[in-house]
Amino acid sequence: MRDLTYHDRLYAALLARDSTYDGVALVGVTSTGIFCRLTCPARKPRPENCRWFGTAAQAAAAGFRPCLRCHPGDGVPPLVAQLTAALAARPGHRWSEGDLLALGHDPSTVRRVFRQHLGQSFLQMARAARLRQGMAALTRGDAMIEAQLEAGFDSASGFREAFARLFGHPPHLMRGASDLRADWIDTPLGGMIAIADDAALHLLEFTDRKALPQGLRRLSARAGGRIGLGRTAVTDRTEAALQAFFAGREGRLDLPLHLHGTPFQMRVWQELQAISAGQTRSYGQLASAIGRPTAVRAVAAANGANRLALVVPCHRVIGTDGTMTGYAGGLWRKERLIALERAYGAAPELPHEA
């Protein structure tokens, strides 16, 4: 069933030509067969003729054509496309505001556009890319100094500190034999750390989540400190499932999981997995579903303690009034994920205008 609160919010953004939704959602107009950005200057359709999509590919797959005025199929702003391509070409480079100025860009403009479109600044993305380079080098078995240099860090201490902030451990503690393996997976919404053994996925988190180091330390303690760098077949399966999810091919991330939590938390997480892509629940509805209608705050706390992002879809829980609240991965990601999933749970086609 169509989520009217979400529909009304996007329709209001369409009427206001709200640029904060650029890259978050697209509108398909059933009366014309065309899809547009929400900032498109064209005449606005009636609300009952609107369908919402997270990507141009989803809109095209549903039979809509791109608008010739706002060019929604272009995907990302040219500034973002140019600089992300430059970052991909030089992932180990220590990017600075001086580099941006040399390329003819105002650093404050770059920061604003990247945060608006990707939820983080270009320089934050560049730092994450450098850490990934170092992580890949350590996984290959390179010496620590080689990993440090490949990551673009001048000092070993700087590399160790940056690595420890991400993982909760300095790199030398993750190089030995281990039962669990940690690796980096790229997604359209940013890098994720996946930790798995040969049987199950134990953790999947966005790398910029503030609680990630704490979660890794707790998992390491449960595993007796035996977390190393690398991947397993479960990691490969996770990466393939994420690719299918973001490509609009599969809304359910069906993976073998090992949940680490109290019986109450695991009951909440199991109920979260029962929410289909394209649907949302309030915290109160979730509490009622597990037979604990007065435990709304405890349910919210369990939601926040989830360490398997997207697979245990805590982003599908919203406020009673429909507001986007309580997502540790960033509200900008929550908006995009729900927009993406509208295609999975789309309502039947509405009648065209007469």
TrEMBL record:
Keyword Ribonucleoprotein: no
Transmembrane segments: none
Gene3D superfamilies xrefs: DNA Methylphosphotriester Repair Domain (3.40.10.10), Homeodomain-like (1.10.10.60), Methylated DNA-protein cysteine methyltransferase domain (3.30.160.70), Winged helix-like DNA-binding domain superfamily/Winged helix DNA-binding domain (1.10.10.10)
SUPFAM superfamilies membership: Ada DNA repair protein, N-terminal domain (N-Ada 10), Methylated DNA-protein cysteine methyltransferase domain, Methylated DNA-protein cysteine methyltransferase, C-terminal domain
Cofactor note: Binds 1 zinc ion per subunit.
InterPro entries, sorted: Ada-like_dom_sf, Ada_DNA_repair_Zn-bd, Bifunct_regulatory_prot_Ada, HTH_AraC, MethylDNA_cys_MeTrfase_AS, MethylDNA_cys_MeTrfase_DNA-bd, MethylDNA_cys_MeTrfase_DNAb, MGMT_N_sf
SMART domains: HTH_ARAC
Catalytic activity field: a 4-O-methyl-thymidine in DNA + L-cysteinyl-[protein] = a thymidine in DNA + S-methyl-L-cysteinyl-[protein]; a 6-O-methyl-2'-deoxyguanosine in DNA + L-cysteinyl-[protein] = S-methyl-L-cysteinyl-[protein] + a 2'-deoxyguanosine in DNA
Cofactor(s) in the UniProt record: Zn(2+)
Endpoints of the signal sequence: none
Residues annotated to bind Zn(2+): 36, 40, 67, 70
Pfam families named in the record: Ada_Zn_binding (PF02805), DNA_binding_1 (PF01035), HTH_18 (PF12833)
Annotated HTH araC/xylS-type domain residues: 103-177
Active site (record annotation): 36, 314
One GO term (biological process): methylation
Keyword Transit peptide tagged: no
One example GO MF annotation: methylated-DNA-[protein]-cysteine S-methyltransferase activity
Keywords: Activator, DNA damage, DNA repair, Metal-binding, Methyltransferase, Transferase, Zinc
EC number(s) on file: 2.1.1.63
Family recorded in the similarity comment: Belongs to the MGMT family.
UniProt-listed NCBIfam families: ogt
Name of the protein in its database record: methylated-DNA--[protein]-cysteine S-methyltransferase
Originating species: Paracoccus liaowanqingii
